[in-house]
Amino acid sequence: MELDPYSSPLAYFARALKRQRERAGLTLAEVAEQTHYAVSTVSAYETAKLVAPADFAKQVDRIYGTAGPDDTAGDLEELQRLAENVSVRPWFRDRVDVEKKAKEVCEYDAYGIPGLLETEDYARAAISAGRPRMSDEEVERAVAIRMTRRQILEPDDELPIDKEHSPRFWGIIDEAALRRDVGGSEIMLAQRQHLVQLAQQPHVTIQVVPDSEGITCAYGRAFSILRPKSGMSIVYVESIFDAQYIRDRDTVDLYTLVFDHLRTTALTDVKSLQLLKGLI
């Protein structure tokens, strides 16, 4: 599908990236080599499939001759700031910022697959179902944000950002969420296969709470605990239209206790992987 550059700031930025590259007479592979990003990643930036980081925009400004004078931002760096600010909902921006720098992310979800573990098709189906008032362009923008967030769990030696940071992820999912049909059988099969691949990564732990356990101490309410490299942990709780960030030490400790109980209620990571493989 041809990208409409006027559908969103993210799409406009993507077209600007492609145009400047073509004016400079460079291929995707050449830009990837000079910026140390994967070719597939550069391509995703130019098609608005992923949100480019400020570091990439600054590098290509220099390569394409669009850098600003002295220490001022270049043309593409300025567009990147606009695209990122507009694409990420205000109440979600803190979550994205903290997540990028976290040393550990712990998530529990009973109804669906945690965002960082979703495939693109599953994310699109889930977002479309959960936010019926969104336009197609808004859905695609939300999918791009989710796929961009997911990169922190997918180390790639070609990506400098992943050399610097790959947090420990601990996810607990209710078995019901694995069986709930989101987008159709093919999408669910691909999603379960993706979970199996992730569960075998050394920095990712996935546990499943079996249906036989009945009601758990979290009563099915999803939450995340973000542990930064320095400072206090933050609990993130999302509702339909907004989110709550909890920083009070005592309350964070209570959520941590609940997560610990969920870990003991869930199957071990080895048995959870066996369950996941059995659903493929």
Describe, in plain words, how this protein is organized in 3D.
The protein has 280 residues and is α/β, with parallel strands linked by helices. The chain folds into two domains: 9-86, 434 Repressor (Amino-terminal Domain) (Orthogonal Bundle); 90-278, 2-Layer Sandwich (Endonuclease, Chain A). It is built from 13 helices and six strands. The chain has helices at 9-23, 28-35, 39-46, 54-64, 75-87, 90-101, 120-130, 136-150, 160-164, 175-179, 185-199, 249-265, 269-278, and strands spanning 102-109, 168-174, 204-209, 223-228, 234-238, 243-246. Strands 3-2-1-4-5-6 form a six-stranded mixed sheet, with helices on both faces. The longest helix has 17 residues, at 249-265. Residues 159-164 have low confidence and may be disordered.
List the strand order in the largest sheet: 3-2-1-4-5-6
Radius of gyration: 20 Å
Write down the CATH class of the largest domain.
Alpha Beta
Alpha carbon gap, first and last residue:
31 Å
Q: Classify the helix fraction into a percent range.
A: 40-55%
Please state the second-level CATH architecture of the largest domain: 2-Layer Sandwich
**What's the total number of strands?**
6
Question: What is the chain-wise order of helices and strands?
Answer: HHHHHHEHHHEHHEEEEHH
- Strand percentage lies at 5-15%
CATH names the topology of the largest domain as Endonuclease, Chain A
Which structural class do you get from the secondary structure elements?
alpha/beta
Shape: globular
Give average pLDDT, whole number: 89
State the domain count: 2
Biggest sheet overview:
6 strands, mixed
State the helix count: 13
Low-pLDDT residue spans: 159-164
